[in-house]
């Protein structure tokens, strides 16, 4: 289960709305608290994909800078978010092909005709070769 404060969910939805009809993307920052993964920050990235309408690529410089800044703080990059313009908030075949870090959360915002709908979270199950849903608790 992950805890996502409503204000961070709103920022992700706004990024998805603003990027439409392209995909938005960014990194999720947080920490583990028992069985709960607490997301307490996000870092928006420019989508560097050559085809941003149906894929995303997070700026590697952003990721490396954040990893350095977070070192020793008890916080870390715990996943990433992106949007699916005119598609469900569920992992695509392209997402599966790009997934290589099973510990990372994949947070996906569905956007239809510019309106942001569902926000869903997933984690890669490498053994099964598929994504599994992760419950989102929207608690402050």
**The CATH H-level homologous superfamily:** Cytidine Deaminase, domain 2
Helix-strand string: EHEEHEHEEEE
Would you tell me the overall average pLDDT? Answer: 94
Q: Provide the domain count.
A: 1
Per the CATH scheme, the topology name is: Cytidine Deaminase, domain 2
Uncertain parts: none
Largest sheet: 8 strands, mixed
CATH architecture annotation = 3-Layer(aba) Sandwich
In terms of structural class, how would the helical and strand content be classed? alpha/beta
Number of H- or I-type helical stretches: 3
How far from one another are the termini? 15 Å
Helix content: 10-25%
Total beta strands: 8
Shape by Cα distribution: globular
Share of β-strand residues: 35-45%
Oligomer status: single chain
Q: For this structure, what is the CATH class? A: Alpha Beta
Features:
Cytidine Deaminase, domain 2; 22% helix; eight-stranded mixed sheet; alpha/beta; 3 helices; single chain; 140 residues; 8 strands
Molecular structure report:
This protein is of the alpha/beta class and 140 residues long. It has one domain (2-137): Cytidine Deaminase, domain 2 (3-Layer(aba) Sandwich). 22% of the residues lie in helices and 41% in strands. The protein has three helices and eight strands. The two termini are 15 Å apart.
């Amino acid at each position: 289960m992950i805890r996502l404060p409503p204000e961070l969910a709103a920022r992700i939805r706004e990024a998805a709305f603003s990027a439409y009809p392209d995909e938005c993307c960014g990194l999720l920052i947080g920490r583990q608290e028992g069985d709960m993964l607490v997301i307490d920050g996000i870092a928006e990235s420019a989508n560097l994909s050559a085809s941003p309408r149906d894929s995303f690529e997070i700026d590697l410089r952003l990721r490396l800078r954040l990893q350095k800044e977070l070192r020793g703080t008890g916080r870390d990059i715990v996943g990433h978010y992106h949007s699916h313009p005119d598609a469900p908030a569920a992992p695509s075949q392209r997402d599966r092909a790009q997934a290589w870090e099973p510990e990372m959360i994949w947070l996906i915002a569905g956007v239809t005709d510019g309106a942001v709908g569902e926000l869903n979270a997933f984690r890669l199950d490498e053994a099964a070769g598929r994504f599994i849903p992760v419950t989102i608790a929207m608690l402050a």
